[in-house]
UniProtKB/TrEMBL annotation:
Keywords: Glycosidase, Hydrolase, Membrane, Signal, Transmembrane, Transmembrane helix. The chain crosses the membrane at residues 376-394. Its EC number is 3.2.1.39. This is glucan endo-1,3-beta-D-glucosidase. Belongs to the glycosyl hydrolase 17 family. It catalyses: Hydrolysis of (1->3)-beta-D-glucosidic linkages in (1->3)-beta-D-glucans. It is an enzyme of class 3 (hydrolase). One of its GO terms (molecular function) is glucan endo-1,3-beta-D-glucosidase activity. InterPro entries: GH (IPR017853), Glyco_hydro_17 (IPR000490), Glyco_hydro_17_plant (IPR044965). GO terms for biological process: carbohydrate metabolic process. Signal peptide: none annotated.
Amino acid sequence: MAMAERFGARWLPFRFVLAVALLVLVTVADRAVMMRAGATPIGINYGQIADNLPSPARVSWLLRSMQVSKVKLYDADPYVLGAFLDTGVEFVVGIGNENVSAMVDPAAARAWIQRHVQPFLPATRITCITVGNEVFKGNDTELKANLLPAMQSVYQALAALGLQGRVNVTTAHSLDIMGSSFPPSAGAFRADVVPYMQPILSFLSMARSPFLINCYPYFAYKADPGNVPLEYVLFQPNAGVTDTNTRLNYDNMLYAQVDSVYAAIQALGHADIDVKISETGWPSRGDPDEAGATPEYAGTYTGNLLRRIEMKQGTPLRPSVPIDVYVFALFNENLKPGPASERNYGLFYPDGTPVYNVGLRGYLPPMDYSRGTRKAVPLLALILIAVAAITLSLS
């Protein structure tokens, strides 16, 4: 009784503060729904080969504040998937090359899904599993031989668990699989890849899964900057290149690359498989011999690409099918091996600062400049700050 009398004077303000806090949370939820309703179709690759990245919870707020609706992972990190519960963001998760051969065993495939996918559904929208990444770029013949059986095992495990149709199964390829790509209508897979690709395409057709390709016009420019027009690779105004067979004009290299993959798929008897770009991007920094790796060119490439995505533009061969793209990558990743460019494909630095402007300004989380650094402030922290301010005003 004494305690009630002692704190009774503050009980009404506390209830009021609690009501305000709940109202703020409801407002935030409503705002999230509105963001999802008007979400941009851009996809983002969220790589984590770094030791200085923000927590998945902060990344969740960052991506949603940008109205990003699709995220691609290279694994199935439970901390990331958990941070996106009930957000409506669509996820592609991955089985790494080191685990592909194990997935040939149906029991292993089922156990992987039960551990890495099923617990998060439907709260986290996992819609696709990539089995391996750029398998045919290497020389591991066992890995190549096991790719399709692993994909089939994962597909069958999904069916056994009642997830068939909700989660697709595919794999991502590099453009190294192409034996020829110009003109686009003459696109063809490498001769050594065809024996593997033919049954993979049959599987994708049966499973109604997309063909994923990693396309980087930057590599072509880097290899021959004197003869590859910069305007053509950066989506800038140019006369373009006309395919002499189809008479279709291409004003950028990325779309020509995609249509060459469509031609290669059709040459093997399939016209019912959609090609999606699982990776594309441009580095903002590189080694001295990496031509064009600058913030200016990276911003131009990515910004122009995003504008075309927002226009729901298709390629010349399939103009009515909006191009589906996952930009690489969300952050610069300081532990990636290879040339300097490999560590500098990010849209953001790890502290949330944009590496360059791609027209997404205004959608980033609030920043704290009080100590001379820019760090994303979680929205929940802002709510707590607001509640504290109200509490003080009522005390």
